[in-house]
UniProtKB/TrEMBL annotation:
<keyword id="KW-0742">SOS response</keyword>
<dbReference type="GO" id="GO:0005524">
    <property type="term" value="F:ATP binding"/>
</dbReference>
<dbReference type="GO" id="GO:0000731">
    <property type="term" value="P:DNA synthesis involved in DNA repair"/>
</dbReference>
<dbReference type="GO" id="GO:0016887">
    <property type="term" value="F:ATP hydrolysis activity"/>
</dbReference>
<dbReference type="InterPro" id="IPR014555">
    <property type="entry name" value="RecF-like"/>
</dbReference>
<feature type="domain" description="ATPase AAA-type core">
    <location>
        <begin position="23"/>
        <end position="79"/>
    </location>
</feature>
<feature type="domain" description="ATPase AAA-type core">
    <location>
        <begin position="177"/>
        <end position="329"/>
    </location>
</feature>
<dbReference type="GO" id="GO:0009432">
    <property type="term" value="P:SOS response"/>
</dbReference>
<protein>
    <submittedName>
        <fullName>ATPase</fullName>
    </submittedName>
</protein>
<dbReference type="Pfam" id="PF13304">
    <property type="entry name" value="AAA_21"/>
</dbReference>
<keyword id="KW-0227">DNA damage</keyword>
<dbReference type="InterPro" id="IPR003959">
    <property type="entry name" value="ATPase_AAA_core"/>
</dbReference>
<dbReference type="InterPro" id="IPR027417">
    <property type="entry name" value="P-loop_NTPase"/>
</dbReference>
<dbReference type="GO" id="GO:0006302">
    <property type="term" value="P:double-strand break repair"/>
</dbReference>
Length: 371
């Protein structure tokens, strides 16, 4: 489980160090930095797949994503990191050397570090990268050169030797298990509304196309009682039925008083979105971290208590971060889950800050130095 997320110089996140627990909800007014925090978490996950450089380039390069307020006179540096009880990781992106390539929007990885424990200390370092050179610490505590990487390759994705760097391999697979769900489609042409070839689906896809198969998988090999309860909490007396026509699966919802079950094509956007969250959060294969961005979108306020119950149940198996505008959802989570970590963001002079967090309240955090 992650204890800390740290971001520096990304959009309005001049310096943000967040404490995390099992169930976390991030709220705040429009423009306070919630979306930037969500994107920063996505970039961290992309690092394990060697996709962070491309993602930053698609945002217009570092010049478009960097903090634009005061205190930007030093070298361009966008930093992302996280830490838990066992491992921590940080990466520092900078500008490419002018004239060496036409890919001028691609940032370069200037430094990376992996360490043991929740706080970076020289004695806790397990792997460090300065420029292209990656050093690993062996069992005797001695450093050796493990690789020379290209500036757009992350050591988290490129070094996977289970003998020489087991910690990097463990950390990489852990980060690759993170899941992000952001505005899954529920429009009339949404994939979730159409019958799809059904195969056992342990994890709902990001576009929700395999919703029917995911729900059927929960019913057969997951927590079928929780599935039934989640549907009944939202739509009293209703139940989900999966229609199988020659291997093509379709979601239907049978409701009291109706002579037939409603197909996915007939469901309201809110009803379909709620069923998507059911499939995502009751997965038989929980993620290390699940991040939901504005899950309340399209939902009627009466569905928010049921959604809160889903999130609270999921946080017992997977660390959850919810980014939301809905104060009702925050209140329901606090009511149903005693250990909710409610983080309210605000903006002060263009800089995102955590309401009520003073310097002494901030988790201990240190960035690795550039070489």
């Amino acid at each position: 489980m992650l204890d800390t997320i740290a971001v520096e110089n990304y959009r309005s996140l001049r310096r943000l160090v967040l404490p995390l627990r099992g169930c976390n909800v991030v709220t705040g007014p429009n423009g306070s930095g919630k979306s930037s925090l969500y994107r920063a978490l996505r970039l961290l996950a992309d690092s394990a797949r060697n996709g962070a450089v491309n993602a930053l380039a698609r945002e217009g390069g570092l010049s478009s994503t960097m903090w634009a307020g005061p205190g930007t006179n030093g070298p361009v540096s966008l930093k992302l990191g996280f830490a838990g009880e066992d491992f921590g990781y940080a990466v520092d992106f900078g500008m490419p050397v002018p004239g060496e390539s036409e890919f001028n929007l691609d940032p370069e990885i200037k430094s990376e570090a992996v360490w043991a424990g929740p706080v970076l200390r020289p004695s806790a370092l397990l792997a460090q990268r300065s420029g292209p050179v990656v050093l690993l610490r062996d069992d005797e505590g001695e450093w050796r050169t493990a690789a020379t990487l290209r500036p757009f390759d992350s050591m988290l994705s490129e070094i996977a030797d289970p003998q020489a760097a087991p910690e990097l391999l463990t950390l990489r697979e852990r980060v690759r298990s993170w899941r992000f769900y952001d505005h899954v489609r529920t429009d009339s042409a949404a994939p979730a509304r159409r019958p799809q070839i059904g195969t056992r689906t342990m994890i709902l896809s990001h576009d929700g196309a395999d919703l029917a198969a995911a729900l059927q998988t929960i019913a057969e090999v997951g927590d079928s009682a929780a599935l039934a309860q989640a549907v009944d909490d939202a739509f009293a007396g209703s139940r989900v039925e999966i229609r199988n026509s020659d291997g093509r699966f379709e979601v239907t919802l049978r409701q009291p008083g109706m002579l037939r079950a409603l197909t996915a094509a007939e469901l309201s956007d809110g009803t379909l979105r709620y069923l998507l969250w059911v499939a995502a959060l009751l997965t038989p294969r929980p993620a290390g971290l699940t991040v939901l961005n504005e899950p309340e979108a399209s939902l009627h306020p009466d569905l928010l208590p049921a959604l809160a119950a889903l999130i609270a149940r999921s946080s017992e198996q997977s660390q959850v971060v919810v980014v939301t505008h809905a104060e009702t959802l925050v209140a329901e989570l606090r009511r149903q889950q005693r250990d909710v970590n409610a983080i309210e963001l605000t903006k002060e002079l263009g800089q995102t800050a955590i309401v009520g967090q003073g310097l002494l309240d901030e988790p201990s955090w240190h960035w690795p130095a550039r070489g």
